[in-house]
Amino acid sequence: MLDDIRWDAGLIRRYDTPGPRYTSYPTAVQFSHKVGSFDLLHALRDSRKARRPLSLYVHVPFCANICYYCACNKVITKDRGRALPYLERLEREIELIACHLDPQQRVEQLHFGGGTPTFLSHDELRRLMGHLRSHFRLLDDDSGDYGIEIDPREADWSTMGLLRELGFNRVSLGVQDLDPAVQRAVNRLQSLEETRAIVEAARTLQFRSLNLDLIYGLPRQNPDGFARTLDEVIALQPDRLSIFNYAHLPERFMPQRRIRSEDLPSAAQKLEMLQRSIEQLRAAGYRYIGMDHFALPDDELAIAQEDGRLQRNFQGYTTHGHCDLIGLGVSAISQIGDLYCQNNAQLNDYQNALENGLLATSRGLVCDEDDRIRRAVIQQLICEFELEFATIERRFNIEFRGYFGEIWPQLEQMHHDRLIDLRENRIDVLPAGRLLVRSLCMLFDHYLNRQDQQRFSRVI
After folding, report:
1. For the chain, what percent of residues have pLDDT higher than 70?
2. Is the whole-model pTM more than 0.85?
3. Alpha-carbon distance 54 to 67, whole Å?
């Protein structure tokens, strides 16, 4: 349940600053072009030697229509023929990566994201999954977490049946808002009936988990309208809900320039939307996992959090953080041991590299010991809302209080504000601090400065 959250408007106003979502530490802002394909090959060799299990992320960038709020790496086109050249390069990347791994490394997690993965035709989806199966050890017993992002406007019952046949057992549906006025303002017209049809298909076809995405802070939204949307969504009984804060950054994301600033809800309205959403979800029995994510008590994420097994990586909250994450496709990010690396974000550059038989790695970072220490601290706080200093001290042979002495006054201030309970041997995030856990993690971020902060969404 959400009883572990306490809403304190005064503290939220004080600590609600822009900051990273910490799907990695260090964050992608710190990636540099000093890291390239040579580093990736070394990391793949180490993964092969250790025979670590794998998590695969496959990026399909194409969308038939543009959503004005979107900050994803995507290509807007009505030309379905553009998928085949991309698919051919993607298959080449799969071959180049797989030959450096052990065929016995199990793929415990697979995720197709975008863009719109179902932009691919049924034949192309079959071809891609067949290629993955021929080069990686995908599981055939439905025990893996194999998910795909779905735009309900780009799928139907036959699509869902195909995806289930291909081995997918988790789906995430983009909804954002059901109010037609909001949908028109962001150029995403999507009826409740379209969404409900895909939900019913997923249930009937026995997909194991269903996630729905909503966004608050969009143009023309107001607290009453968003509450109606959430009531309709709760009635669909998704296993998980993600309720994201819209970050209006038109200087960085060109499509957002089509959104009029005067149509955006006020900061007070956004806070009310979030507060009421938490109340509605509490009444419906959902638990707050953290970082905009909610789940039913019997969901795998909720159980993992209770058991201390919850982790976080570029796939979001996961139970597979122990896997080496291999990113495939334009702009995809890999995390293999202490290496982060990202493919070229420009479609032509990505495709040209693979056309020439080269990996498309364009930038990245290799973690040093300080990065590893801070990553472990942030991971623990953001997943479990608690941290025992002795765990970090034993693992890294440091004295916690001394190592983080420079931020101790800020930690004490958070303790004074009742966001955390700071003791001699541990930190516990209190109910008023759970919504603001990003602010706590930011204290441990060695790289963060005011200039970098402006690249991120606000905490609330």
Report:
1. 98
2. yes
3. 32
